[in-house]
Amino acid sequence: MRHFLDLLDWDGAQIRKLLKDAARLKKLHQRRQEKPLLAGRVLGMIFEKPSLRTRVSFESAMIQLGGGGIFLSNSDAALGQRESIPDFARTLSQYVDAVVLRTFEHSRVEELAAHASVPVINGLSDYYHPCQALGDLLTVQESCGELDGQTVVFVGDGNNVARSLALACGKTGLRFILSAPKGYGFDAAFKKVYAENVADVPFVEESDPRKAVAQADVIYTDVWTSMGQENEGTKRRKAFAAFQVNQKLLDAAPKDAKVMHCLPAHRGEEITADVVDGPRSVVFPQAGNRMHAQKALLVWLMADATK
């Protein structure tokens, strides 16, 4: 059974093939020549966290590919509350052709996948956000002209987005630099996982954001306080104050370096409004590319599953 829970079992060739398919599907969309590759297929969408980009991009992708999506909120699904996750998985698998789960603990995605008889997609967990990483690489490829030789500098928290992006970059040969305050870099468990899965492309940690972005083709940031960490907000704003992506930081980067953010942005905290809306920003095309990368993923999981 194919699942998409993280990027650990993907290699660079598979990721690049998916990006090629995503670019092709994007061109068909721009020409209004979408093909019903998933006609009659249904995606179950379980969201235990609020969402704009993940929900709408998946639902729109299914419609444009000729299928449909069924949305279940946290109160609708109530995983592990109204019934066990195994029972839920066995039941839902008889109604839909794939499931996307946006949740808190990564173990919930793994448990759902262990008992489902249809593909399960990690739409976000506390540890990984692989769908975001696919859209991000598609954006790097478009905005930089190619993936080969690019350096992505992530300025901020070593969170789920950073972990998945580091894996995606490493597996496709891009250089990844994390610039985070002390105590907010990658945890020891992830470093071990990364070393075991991407032995030939080590990531770099650089505590000085100015030194880090001086090497950047892409400067990437995310919120300093993620959902579920609200009680740490004051502490985090103080710790990350020197890691804001602003014009002063951009002045230390190459003139053609692009700026990315997975959104939603806390303008005035991790990034300033003039940078989000500035000429170097590819933030909103990046958001749009979530749908195109996920189209390729959905086709791979469902239409191409027997090939």
How would the blueprint of this fold be written?
Blueprint: H1 12-30, E1 42-47, H2 53-64, E2 68-73, H3 74-77, H4 85-92, E3 98-102, H5 106-115, E4 120-124, H6 130-144, E5 151-155, H7 160-172, E6 175-179, H8 188-197, E7 204-205, H9 209-213, E8 218-221, H10 233-239, H11 247-250, E9 258-261, H12 273-276, H13 283-303
Parallel strand pairs: 1-2, 1-3, 3-4, 5-6, 5-8, 6-7, 8-9
Helix pairs in contact: 1-6, 1-7, 1-13, 2-13, 4-5, 6-7, 6-13
Low-confidence residue ranges? none
The largest sheet is: 5 strands, parallel
| Class derived from helix and strand content | alpha/beta
**Helical content class:** 40-55%
Mean pLDDT over the residues = 95
How many strands? Answer: 9
Straight-line distance between termini: 13 Å
Shape-level CATH architecture of the largest domain: 3-Layer(aba) Sandwich
What is the total domain count?
A: 2
Could you explain the architecture of this structure?
The chain has 307 residues and is of the alpha/beta class. The chain folds into 2 domains: 12-129 and 289-303, Aspartate/ornithine carbamoyltransferase (Rossmann fold), CATH 3.40.50.1370; 132-286, 3-Layer(aba) Sandwich (Rossmann fold). Helix content is 43%, strand content 14%. It has helices at 12-30, 53-64, 74-77, 85-92, 106-115, 130-144, 160-172, 188-197, 209-213, 233-239, 247-250, 273-276, 283-303; strands at 42-47, 68-73, 98-102, 120-124, 151-155, 175-179, 204-205, 218-221, 258-261. The strands form 2 sheets. Strands 7-6-5-8-9 form a 5-stranded parallel beta sheet. Strands 2-1-3-4 form a 4-stranded parallel beta sheet, with helices on both faces. Helix 8 (188-197) links the parallel strand 6 and strand 7. The two termini are 13 Å apart.
